[in-house]
Amino acid sequence: MEFPSQLRYLIPKGIWLKRTLILLGFILLDLIVTAILCRSPSMEANPYARGFMEIYGIIPGLTIFNFIATAPLYAVLIFDSYMIEYTRHYRDKVEVIIDLAFGWLIAGSRFNGAMSWLWNTSHLTRQALGFIIYLSLAIPILYILPKHHRIRYKMRASKLILMNFKALK
Fold first, then answer.
1. Which residue blocks in the chain are alpha helix, DSSP H?
2. Is residue 1 part of a domain?
3. Which pLDDT tens digit goes with each residue over 35-86?
4. Choosing a second label site near 155 at 20 to 30 A (CA), which of 19, 109, 115, 166?
5. CB 29 within 8 A of CB 129
6. Helix (H, G, I), strand (E, B) or coil at 117
């Protein structure tokens, strides 16, 4: 699917799209669990989300809050996806640091928020578990599988070259 030239800049490119989808999954988990289990705005621990819920109602307020809270994150992910091209020397190290930061700050805290409705344990435990789940998703999807695909592609390309070379003889 080809987007008009200006709209393509609103979608992260490459590995950053996958990273964005993983993070949006954690945000959506928090939104859905909170929307289902929250019966009153006073039950919400986040004071900002509670304020939106009191003004607009539970589901609209929670949706507006999540949209406002997620928009800057999405903007950073888009910006980084286009700017990382200019830091080739540091790219691998920077992406690992970014995954650690997003894993703890975004995925961990959103998992903590979602599980606080279901699991009565410490905040640190829930956040650490969310961080571990994020890394267990991100490492294979962002680092292991793309390299495996590149190796398979190179092997197929080398077989084609070898077959063409044999055909010339």
1. 15-37, 47-56, 58-83, 91-102, 109-115, 123-138, 145-168
2. no
3. 999 999 999 989 999 999 999 999 999 999 999 999 999 988 888 888 877 7
4. 19
5. no
6. coil
- Rounded to whole angstroms, the Cα distance separating 146 from 155 reads 14
In angstroms, how far is CA 122 from the centroid of its own chain?
24
- How far apart CA 12 and CA 108 sit, in angstroms, is 22
* 54 Cβ contact partners less than 8 Å away, ≥ 6 residues apart: 41, 61
Tell whether 23 is covered by a domain.
yes
CA distances from 165 to 8, 64, 153, 154, 159 (A): 40, 61, 18, 16, 10
Among the listed residues 119, 109, 120, the one whose alpha carbon sits nearest the alpha carbon of residue 46: 109
Q: Which residues span the domain enclosing 24?
A: 7-168
Q: Are 129 and 119 in contact (CB under 8 A)?
A: no
Contact by Cβ (8 Å): 29, 111: yes
pTM over 0.85: no
Q: Name the domain count of the chain.
A: 1
- 128: helix, strand or coil: helix
